[in-house]
């Protein structure tokens, strides 16, 4: 038995012990007596609670994929087309609630596969449920390296781990002229946010930039106290690992206390309407990171012809431009679409067909508007799509995100910001 198989056996045995024989039997997918006219996908994401902003972004991505594939007649299997149905469960921004929702969905909804949560902590709670029930599971959002280190066979992710995104973008920002000599790193003490802050710190250390503080806090912390400490430290740059809510709170506190380092780098969400609306004009100049922008040329391909085509469809449907989380969520649906076409089985899927679907996804290579998607088969990033390149960005004129840094297509950064 190899290392991966052994880890899967231990996890399955542990969960079986926890649930008991009857509980496991109740959760298993088994055969289904539902109608076979549609492929049914369960979706577990945060539609309420602190992470609802990001949860709604994933929902837009999944919904736009469903709408577009259905407008094209559905997923084609052996000459017939089958529409897509999505069944949502609210994780309420809580890992245990997300795990319960996933268990209930598999027991009661007879889903063929699952589209996964917005946040890493909920994904880490949901993935063992998918593993025990041998249910295919693709998240279009979660980025914590802990997910991929667990080596879950049935879980995949279209967004590269934050370990790669935050580190590479941070190194680019630290190299702007004049090169920073010091940085203050703050963050929220959760799986994704801690991994982000850690990657930022590592980037600074790799560039021989002094890290004045590495300050992790609860999600409900008073960010004015963090800003006060940072202002006393007087860094060249301030890096922050968190979700949109903590970014907005931190930068509002910085404005109130007149804390103005040469720039702020907040990785996720600076290109979302929630971030821009939360800060208004004060969002300008903020650095972030992405793996996708509407104006960046990618391979095009299945369903949406190009990044610009996808952005146009999103604007028409939701009245706002998409960010990379929404794009990654739609790409997760496209991966399922191609994999199901390769599988060639009509809905509903049997357990053996679900197992075959997982094997197909593991080997898949899909050209999409988001970029080429494939998944690592071994190592620390097992089943993560690491092939999509990170892009450092900055909000500039009218809070539009532009690529900055060393690439040939990059715009000139406003740096030091506003000085």
Provide a brief overview of the structure:
The chain has 13 helices and 15 strands. With 419 residues, it is α/β, with parallel strands linked by helices. The protein has 2 domains: 3-160 and 296-373, 3-Layer(aba) Sandwich (Rossmann fold); 163-290 and 391-403, 3-Layer(aba) Sandwich (Rossmann fold).
Record keyword descriptors for this entry:
single chain, 419 residues, alpha/beta, Rossmann fold, 6-stranded mixed beta sheet, 4-stranded parallel beta sheet, globular, disordered N terminus, Peripla_BP_I, signal
Low-confidence stretches: 1-33
Radius of gyration: 21 Å
Helix-strand sequence: HEHEEHEHEHEHEHEHEHEHEHHHEEEE
Structural class: alpha/beta
Tell me the name of the CATH homologous superfamily of the largest domain.
Answer: Response regulator
State the end-to-end distance: 60 Å
Counted beta strands: 15
Give the CATH topology of the largest domain: Rossmann fold
Please indicate the count of domains: 2
**Portion in helices:** 40-55%
Mean pLDDT, to the nearest integer, reads 90
CATH architecture annotation name of the largest domain: 3-Layer(aba) Sandwich
Total number of helical segments? 13
Specify the CATH class of the largest domain: Alpha Beta
Would you kindly provide a written description of the structure presented here, covering whatever features stand out?
Strand 7 (182-188), helix 7 and strand 8 (210-217) form a beta-alpha-beta unit. This protein folds into two domains: 3-160 and 296-373, Rossmann fold (3-Layer(aba) Sandwich); 163-290 and 391-403, 3-Layer(aba) Sandwich (Rossmann fold), CATH 3.40.50.2300. It starts with a helix and ends in a 16-residue tail after the last strand. The chain has helices spanning 3-27, 52-71, 95-109, 120-132, 145-149, 162-174, 191-206, 223-233, 244-256, 273-279, 307-318, 324-343, 351-363; strands at 38-45, 75-77, 80-90, 113-115, 137-139, 155-157, 182-188, 210-217, 237-241, 264-265, 287-290, 366-368, 371-373, 391-395, 401-403. The protein has 419 residues and is of the alpha/beta class. Helix 1 crosses helix 4, helix 2 (52-71) packs across helix 12 (324-343) and helix 3 (95-109) packs parallel to helix 4 (120-132). 44% of the residues lie in helices and 17% in strands. The radius of gyration is 21 Å and the shape is globular. The strands form four sheets. Strands 2-3-1-4-5-6 form a six-stranded mixed sheet, with helices on both faces. A four-stranded parallel sheet has the order 8-7-9-10, sandwiched between helices.
């Amino acid at each position: 038995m190899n290392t991966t198989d052994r880890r899967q056996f231990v996890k399955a045995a542990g969960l079986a012990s926890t649930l008991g024989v009857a509980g496991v039997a109740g959760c298993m997918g088994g055969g289904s007596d539902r109608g076979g006219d549609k492929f049914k996908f369960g979706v577990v994401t945060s539609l309420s609670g602190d992470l609802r902003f990001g949860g709604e972004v994933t929902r837009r991505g999944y919904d736009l994929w469903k709408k577009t594939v259905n407008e094209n007649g559905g997923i084609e299997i052996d000459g017939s087309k089958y529409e897509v149905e999505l069944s949502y469960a609210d994780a309420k921004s809580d890992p245990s609630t997300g795990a319960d929702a996933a268990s209930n969905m598999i027991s009661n909804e007879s889903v063929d596969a699952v589209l996964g949560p917005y946040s890493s902590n909920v994904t880490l709670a949901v993935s063992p449920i998918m593993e025990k029930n041998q249910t295919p599971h693709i998240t279009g959002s979660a980025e914590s390296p802990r997910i991929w280190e667990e080596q879950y066979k049935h879980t995949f992710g279209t967004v590269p781990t934050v370990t790669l995104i935050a580190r590479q973008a941070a190194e680019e920002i630290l190299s702007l002229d004049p090169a920073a000599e010091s940085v203050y790193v703050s963050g929220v003490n959760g799986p994704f946010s801690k991994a982000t802050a850690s990657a930022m710190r590592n980037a600074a250390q790799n560039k021989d930039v002094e890290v004045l503080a590495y300050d992790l806090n609860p999600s409900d912390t008073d960010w004015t106290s963090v800003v006060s400490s940072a202002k006393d430290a007087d860094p060249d740059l301030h890096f922050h690992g968190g979700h949109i809510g903590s970014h907005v709170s931190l930068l509002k506190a910085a404005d109130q206390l007149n804390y103005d380092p040469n720039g702020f780098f907040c990785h996720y969400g600076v290109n979302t309407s929630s971030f821009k609306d939360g800060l208004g004009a004060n969002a300008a100049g903020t650095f972030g990171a992405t793996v996708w922008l509407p104006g960046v040329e990618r391979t095009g391909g299945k369903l949406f012809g190009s990044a610009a085509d996808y952005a146009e469809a999103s604007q028409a449907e939701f009245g706002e431009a998409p960010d990379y989380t929404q794009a990654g969520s739609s790409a997760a649906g496209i991966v399922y679409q191609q994999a199901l076409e390769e599988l060639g089985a009509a809905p509903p899927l049997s357990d053996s067909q679900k197992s075959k679907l997982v094997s197909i996804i593991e080997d898949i290579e899909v050209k999409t508007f988001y970029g080429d998607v494939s998944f690592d088969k071994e190592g620390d990033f097992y089943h993560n799509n690491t092939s999509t390149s990170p892009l450092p960005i900055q909000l500039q004129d009218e809070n539009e995100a532009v690529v900055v840094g060393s690439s040939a297509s990059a715009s000139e950064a406003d740096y030091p910001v506003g000085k």
